[in-house]
Write a structure and sequence with these properties.
- The protein has 333 residues and is mainly alpha-helical.
- It has a domain of 220 residues.
- It is built from 13 helices and seven strands.
- The chain is globular and about 60 Å long.
């Protein structure tokens, strides 16, 4: 009986799936725009509600997620941003404890809430115009339809230049989207339905589409956990990982400073020169220090970063506490 019901369910699924395929060519831009709007809304909820609950930095004394700690971090950064520039420069110049705390909070806040442009592109999706050409859904159109529901902070970076050394980023800040209504945000945080992706609502095509893309993205971006910095360097020197990924893991897993990361990279390049290995640099190595932020104002642009576009946003230093927050209840195989 159960077997027969299963086959019936599968047959119904195939029928509905076939219908959806047939209908796909008939769907116009309005359908895909609506899907993108609902999907991007889910992405913001995921970043602001689900991911923080799995972040060790936001755990309270009882070992459980504390929304108070999350909001305290944001309030600290907001206070810094509103501080007179002269006062900021004083703390920076004298490297005060307040400045060290700022670096720690800003580094973590950036990684906790920054969006990856690749994921944004997937969720926004595309449609086909009257000529059959594939066209991306504009992020601007989506945000216009969500006006008042979210607030946004822009992205940017600061480049340091030293004589004899290739310019490198000393800090960057990613584009981040937050739920504008704090009361609604707290309500979602207290709702168990949003504590893991498996229980998210899928009432619209946009919600279901976004959840599917988030799962795929997390599977692709969960990297190997290294037991030591030495193990990481071995893989890097043997060309098992590229320079961009080496930098990312060195910061996230081992909290390495830009100075130490730079020395490791120069060491590898020195070894290659000694061995007369004239290797062509990869696409990612060519972009070293040029494109850092994970989100840009337009998903049509590259997935690494655009030129600085934000002012007054907290600066994200490579040094300081950095955590990898999965935001998933179950491990993805």
């Amino acid at each position: 009986m159960v077997y027969h019901q299963t086959l019936s369910s599968w047959g119904a699924y195939k029928t509905s799936f076939s219908k959806s395929i047939d209908m796909k060519t008939k769907r116009d831009k309005d359908y895909y725009l609506k899907r993108a709007i609902n999907g991007f809304k889910i992405l913001i909820i995921y970043q602001c509600v689900t991911k923080p609950q799995f972040d060790p930095v936001y755990k309270g004394d009882n070992g459980k997620f504390s929304k108070e700690k999350m909001f305290e971090e944001a309030e600290f950064l907001d206070k810094w941003n509103k501080m007179p520039k002269k006062r900021q420069n004083y703390h920076t110049k004298h490297h005060t404890e307040y400045f060290k705390q700022y670096k720690k909070h800003s580094a973590h806040h950036n990684l906790a809430f920054g969006l990856d442009c690749r994921l944004v592109e997937k969720i926004l999706g595309t449609y086909r115009d009257d000529e059959g050409n594939k066209v991306r859904i504009s992020i601007d159109e989506v945000l216009q339809n969500l006006n008042g529901w979210f607030r946004c902070s822009n992205c940017g970076k600061i480049i340091r230049r030293k004589k004899g050394i290739k310019p490198f980023p000393v800090c960057w800040w990613k584009k981040k989207y937050f739920i504008a209504d704090k009361n609604y945000w707290v309500k979602l945080l207290d709702n168990p339905q949003y504590s893991k992706l498996e229980t998210y609502p899928r009432e619209t095509d946009g919600e279901a589409w976004a959840i599917e893309q988030i799962w795929k993205y997390r599977k692709e971006t969960i990297h190997k956990k290294y037991s030591s910095m030495l193990e990481l360097c071995v893989d890097f020197n043997n060309d098992m990982i590229d320079e961009l990924l080496f930098r990312k893991i060195a910061v996230k897993q081992f909290n390495q400073s830009e100075e130490k990361i730079g020395k490791a990279i120069l060491s590898k390049k020195g070894q290659n020169n000694d061995n007369n290995e004239n290797q062509t640099r990869t696409h990612y190595q060519d972009k070293q220090g040029q494109k850092v932020s994970d989100e840009t104002s337009s998903p049509i642009e590259g997935a690494d970063n655009s030129a600085p576009s934000g002012q007054g946003e907290e600066r994200i230093f490579l040094e300081g506490l950095v955590q990898e927050t999965q935001g998933l209840q179950e491990e993805v195989d």
